[in-house]
Design goal:
Layout (H helix, E strand, L loop, with lengths): L1 H13 L22 E5 L8 E7 L3 H8 E2 L10 E6 L6 E10 L10 E7 L2 H12 L4 E3 L4 H8 L5 H12 L3 H11 L2 H26 L9 H31 L1 E5 L7 H9 L17 E7 L2 E7 L9 H13 L13 H19 L3 H19 L5 H8 L7
Parallel strand pairs: 1-7, 8-10
Antiparallel strand pairs: 1-2, 2-6, 3-4, 4-5, 5-6, 9-10
Helix pairs in contact: 1-7, 5-6, 7-8, 7-12, 8-11, 11-12
Length: about 400
């Protein structure tokens, strides 16, 4: 009997199958493992002290040998000073630091190489052209390095999103939140919840198959119900607090409104620490909506200085008042500004499925509700996602990341 029970546990633990590697990288690029090696400039464009060019794929070692002298690979994960030359003409390109990251101990999980060259445009262009001449190499698509890391299991989907947020972070608070997600806090939380559902599902399926067996432990369904109730409480608390993180990521839009000469423009200038708005004792000085981004103790905000709300004496001031009233609409109406709506969608879907579990009159239907709930949790971290969703997530990455 216990052998059959463990079979059920293993079957429940497997859950939905992981998605197959994607076969499209935005514009028809091959998927990881297809034999293609990609390269790109990973640092910013323009003149700089050091520019980082990276490769990922099976031909990375050949690319490193082709451009460097001596031709042997450097020790793994140790920077070495090498002369870079064009493999076609032998012309020297730069004297640079190179690093070799053999897979799977690399960012993408594939063989990777990095060239830390001087940041002049001519140097960067010369090295990129030289890499393009190596057989088996092609320029990377936007976000392709990170997408390969996801496809090869180096990052979960929530960690990918944390990396994207870290790249775009403009304030300290945004940086801290992005690092927490990149470190896998949300992934670990969702996996823990999924394990709870796996146990509950195993208990339900065990009762379905062995309910009449005297050797089956008593109270097995009660434990499943208790686990579901605890998970419902945790999900509900997380959903009620979810918009705090979303607002931090996207920033707040703060409209400064009120009667004329109330100090709106002075407040905006004080918070932004620069003379954004003209300050005058004359009513109606601010005629249009003036906007400026600010960092309020680590939280990003867009301040809008508006015209004083009063009966305007002229058409210009009336237009300013009309615009001020349109920015100050009821914040409780309209769609919420959720930048990671898919997280909330799947958590709500999981909670709804748990509700169906409690209402189910048949144990088979209850078990199916638990599978659906678990499926929503695994999709948050990347299991069962569609290629179209992945394309949307990765399109925000720059080329070289």
């Amino acid at each position: 009997m216990w052998r059959g029970l463990w079979t059920l546990v293993a079957r429940a633990a497997r859950g939905p199958r992981s998605p197959r590697p994607c076969t499209r990288q935005g514009s028809g690029a091959p998927a990881p493992g297809s034999g293609a090696t990609v390269f790109a400039l990973s640092s910013g464009q323009g003149r700089c002290g050091i520019a980082v060019i990276r490769t990922s794929g099976p031909a990375s070692g050949q690319a490193l040998r082709s451009l460097t002298a001596p031709r042997d690979l450097p020790p793994a994960r140790k920077a070495c000073l090498r002369l870079l030359s064009d493999p076609r003409s032998g012309e020297p390109l730069d004297r640079a630091l190179v690093l070799w990251f053999p897979g799977p101990q690399s960012f993408t999980g594939e063989d990777c190489a990095e060239f830390h060259v001087h940041g002049g445009p001519a140097v960067v262009s010369g090295v990129l052209q030289a890499l393009g001449s190596v057989p088996g190499l092609r320029p990377a698509e936007a976000g392709e390095f990170t997408r390969r890391a996801f496809a090869l299991g180096k990052l979960s989907l929530t960690e990918v999103e944390g990396l994207a947020d870290l790249i775009h972070a403009e304030t300290e608070a945004q940086r801290r939140q992005a690092l927490r997600q990149l470190d896998g806090e949300l992934s670990h939380l969702c996996r823990g919840w999924a394990e709870t559902l796996t146990k509950a599902l195993a208990h339900v399926e065990a009762y379905i198959d062995f309910g009449e067996d005297d050797n089956l432990e008593e109270g097995i369904l009660d434990r499943a119900d208790s686990e579901v109730r605890e998970l419902e409480v945790a999900l509900g608390a997380h959903l009620r607090d979810a918009r705090r993180g979303q607002r931090l990521r996207s920033g707040a839009h703060v409209v400064v409104a009120g009667p004329p000469n109330a100090g709106k423009s002075s407040l905006v200038n004080l918070l932004s620490r620069k003379p954004v708005s003209i300050v005058s004792p004359e009513p109606g000085t601010t005629r249009d909506v003036l906007e400026t981004p600010v960092d309020l103790a680590g939280f990003p905000a867009l301040l809008s200085d508006t015209a004083g709300v009063r009966e305007g004496v002229g058409p210009v001031e009336q237009e300013g008042v009309r615009r001020a009233q349109k920015r100050c609409g009821d914040p409780s109406t309209g769609p919420p500004l959720l930048t990671r709506a898919r997280h909330q969608h799947h958590l709500q879907g999981c909670l709804d499925a748990l509700g169906h579990y409690k209402q189910a009159k048949d144990l088979a239907l209850a078990a199916e509700a638990l599978r659906v709930a678990r499926g929503h949790l695994t999709r948050i971290t990347g299991g069962g996602g569609t290629e179209e969703i992945l394309d949307i997530i990765f399109q925000d990455f720059c080329v070289g990341k």
